[in-house]
Design a protein that fits this description.
By secondary structure, this protein is of the alpha/beta class. The protein is built from 11 helices and 13 strands. The strands form 3 sheets. The protein has a 9-stranded mixed β-sheet with strand order 5-4-1-6-11-8-12-10-9. Strands 2-3 form a two-stranded antiparallel ribbon. A two-stranded antiparallel sheet has the order 7-13.
């Protein structure tokens, strides 16, 4: 029997964004713009383009602007319509999901990614689902990373988990991420033997880290419930993945694209420059800005 289709995605957007304080004191980090578009919209549009039909946002306090962004602003729409500003109107409402496709749930306590995913259990049901972290922004010239992961899941045709992975640019940074170990691998993906959360450099089994995209079987919820809270009382999703490996295979999908950690200031600035250089309207001015500031760099 073929796998069920991946139709649902969870966006865990309830985090505190402490790496971006004070900007994130009142503004969700997921609403920070890269070029003219907030991070959370990039994540949503990628999922919609990949064929996802149901969108679950796990929010927290001070996250109301995310809900407002996915709603109609009738006053603004009326003004743009009357002014015949069709392109601006399209940017405002042209991408919005249909009624009934989107759910907002509050994670009442910030207890980690595993806990955020668990909050959606009753809404996901007994189907495979995807997870996407909005502050992990990717660029792929041709294609859609989440769509590629769903195709891999369909082609494998077995109950399994898939995590997006990518080589860490600097090996000394492996202690910042969940790191995978391969049982076997090929050019595009590999079967994993285990995962390690933030290992010491000398203990890291590889230099491939888990990034912010996942496909899970619904059984992951039971394994999350069995995870003991760790640092800061958080429930780590990597612990649940590791525990589930005894029952289902987990595969690492090797991302072919550029990754921007927009939860960090430098990663966020890098993303803005990169996306501005790819925009036909802003690329020339951005190049001039880079040349201007480059004069003072020794």
């Amino acid at each position: 029997m073929p796998n069920k289709k991946v139709k649902t995605i969870i966006f865990p957007v309830g985090g505190l964004g402490t790496r971006f304080l004070p900007a994130t004191k009142a503004t969700p980090k997921e609403m920070l713009p890269v070029a003219e578009k907030p991070l959370v919209q990039y994540a949503f549009e990628e999922a919609a383009d990949a064929g996802i039909e149901r969108f679950i946002f796990i929010t927290g306090r001070n996250k109301n602007s995310i809900e407002n962004h996915f709603d109609h602003n009738y006053e603004l729409q009326s003004i743009l319509s009357d002014s015949n500003k069709r392109e601006m109107l399209k940017k405002t409402v042209g991408w919005l999901p249909a009624a009934g496709q989107i759910v907002f749930m509050r994670q009442q306590m910030a207890l980690g990614l595993g806990h955020a995913i668990l909050c959606a259990e009753k809404f996901v049901g007994n189907e495979p689902f995807a997870v996407s972290l909005a502050d992990e922004l990717f660029y792929k010239k041709d294609g859609n990373i989440l769509s590629d992961m769903i195709k891999l899941y369909d082609n494998l045709n077995e109950k399994c988990n898939i995590v997006a992975i990518q080589q860490v640019e600097n090996k000394k940074d492996v202690s910042k991420y969940g790191i995978v170990a391969f049982e076997n691998e090929n050019a595009n993906y590999g079967k994993l033997s285990h995962v390690v959360e933030k290992p010491k450099i000398e203990d890291a089994p590889s230099d491939f880290s888990i990034t912010g995209k996942y496909i899970f079987e619904p059984e992951i919820f039971d394994h999350i419930k069995g995870v003991k809270p760790g640092i800061n009382n958080e429930i780590q999703i990597t612990d649940a993945i590791a525990d589930m490996m005894s029952k289902f295979n987990t595969y690492g999908y090797k991302i072919d694209g550029e990754r921007y950690d927009c939860g960090s200031v430098i990663g966020y600035l890098k993303a803005n420059i990169a996306f501005a250089l790819r925009n036909e309207e802003t690329k020339d001015q951005t190049r001039e800005l880079i040349k201007y500031f480059n004069r003072d760099i020794k």
